[in-house]
Every structure is written in structure tokens, then in C-alpha cells.
Write a structure and sequence with these properties.
10 helices, globular, alpha/beta, 49% helix, Rossmann fold
């Protein structure tokens, strides 16, 4: 698929173009894309972060600030959210306007404008399929987290054979494009067509074991991977090594 190839060769430009027309209905249709499980996956991702009781969290690929808002509901941390797409951030700014503990900014995950060990924890969602070098990006994410700080992520995943994979393919190849078109117009239909092939291609190149290895190479320890909802989602977490 041409879109999948473009997402590999020009990931930042592709992500900007893909998400530029999506913000106003992003959270509603995000729930559809995750089979209605996004809120549950997000809570699972945030559990180890909240347990660590951080003072300052960086949320990368913050989008419309859904994770940032959930964090401030569950703990007393300040949250800095960054995203590549200005249109998404504009909606996020509207949602957090006047919030005393959330600040949003435009930045690339591959080149964060923060000093080493700035944050007590870091979260990122649906990110690594949109960067050219996931391993280098993980090293950059870990760089800005203090030793011992928690890093947690959420991503779509591919369910296992033999039962769930065919059903997932039917859902992603047929239901998502049609539902996206009906609920969000052409921009969301494009996302629907792109999503399934993009996810499968990503895990062909980087199986879960490779993800764990990349996290460990980036300096993270106690790395865990938890499939969600029959394998349709993947939550990962670990902590930056001490010293």
C-alpha cells in the first residue's frame, strides 16, 4: 500500500498530513478504531505511571490532550504534552485552556527540546509507527526521564491466529474505512484504509520481542509488554536504569 510505504519513507510529513484534518472528532473516532477499548487501554498504560507518583510527566504524541487530562485526574503531577501536528494541538489547547497543571507545545519525539532527566515519567501513544527510527526515538524519550522514572506506552497490535486475526483483518479492512467515512468523512476513511496494513507492517519489522529489546537498548529496565483486548492493543512500560 502506497500510504504504508510513505509512512516509512517520510514519517513526519506523512503523520502531519494524516492527522491534520482529524482533530475535531478525534476522540470519538479513536474509540471506534480501538474497538471501543481506548479508554481501558489508556488506563492500563497510566497505572504504573500513577503508582510511581511523579511530579512532572511528559506526554509525547499528546494529540488532543486526552492522556494529559486523564493523568491530572488520577494524580497530582504537572503534565507537559508535545505533538508534531499543530491542528491536533490547537484542539488540545482548547480542551486544557485554564488548566493549571497542563502545558502543551509543538515538538518532534525524535528531537525533544528538553534537557536530560527533566521529567519523572513519560508516556507516549500510537507513536512508533510514525518515526523513521523507533530505536533512536526510544533513546531520545529515555534521555529526558530521570533515573528510576517510568516510561509507558500504548499502541495498536495484531491479534493472534487462527481465530482473531481474520476477524481483525475484516474489521480493519472493511468496517473501519466505511465507519470512518460515515462518521468523519474522507480524512477518516483514509485512516481506516491505512491503519490495518500499517499495524501489520510495523510488527512484521518489529515484533514485540524486538520492541522489548529496543526499550532495553535505550536504557530501560524491568520492561513489560501486556497485550490488551485479545491482542488488539499493546501496553508497555519500564523504568530508566539507575546511574
Amino acid at each position: 500500500m502506497r500510504a504504508v510505504e510513505e509512512s516509512r519513507t517520510r514519517p513526519n510529513a506523512f503523520a502531519r498530513g494524516l492527522f491534520a484534518d482529524l482533530p475535531r472528532r478525534y476522540d470519538l473516532i479513536e474509540a471506534l478504531l480501538s474497538f471501543g477499548q481506548n479508554d481501558r487501554w489508556r488506563r492500563a498504560m497510566l497505572d504504573p505511571v500513577v503508582t510511581a507518583r511523579p511530579a512532572h510527566v511528559l506526554d509525547v504524541a499528546t494529540g488532543t490532550a486526552g492522556v494529559a487530562l486523564e493523568l491530572t485526574r488520577r494524580c497530582d503531577a504537572r503534565v507537559t504534552g508535545v505533538d508534531l501536528t499543530e491542528q491536533m494541538l490547537h484542539v488540545g489547547q482548547e480542551r486544557v485552556a485554564g488548566h493549571p497543571r497542563i502545558r502543551l507545545a509543538c515538538a518532534r519525539a525524535e528531537q525533544l527540546p528538553f534537557a536530560d532527566a527533566t521529567f519523572d515519567a513519560l508516556t507516549f501513544t500510537y507513536l512508533l509507527r510514525y518515526v523513521a527510527d523507533p530505536s533512536a526515538t526510544l533513546r531520545e524519550l529515555a534521555r529526558v526521564v530521570r533515573p528510576g522514572g517510568v516510561v509507558a506506552s500504548l499502541e495498536f497490535h495484531v491479534p493472534p491466529r487462527p481465530v482473531w486475526l481474520p476477524l481483525w483483518r475484516l474489521y480493519t479492512r472493511l468496517v473501519l474505512p466505511v465507519a470512518g467515512l460515515l462518521l468523519g468523512g474522507r480524512a477518516w476513511a483514509v485512516v481506516g484504509w491505512f491503519l490495518g496494513p500499517s499495524i501489520e507492517e510495523h510488527y512484521r519489522r518489529y515484533p514485540v520481542a524486538a520492541h522489548v529489546a529496543m526499550w532495553e537498548t535505550a536504557g530501560l529496565v524491568d520492561v513489560r509488554a501486556r497485550p490488551m483486548s485479545l491482542g488488539g492493543g499493546l501496553v508497555m512500560w519500564g523504568r530508566v536504569a539507575d546511574g
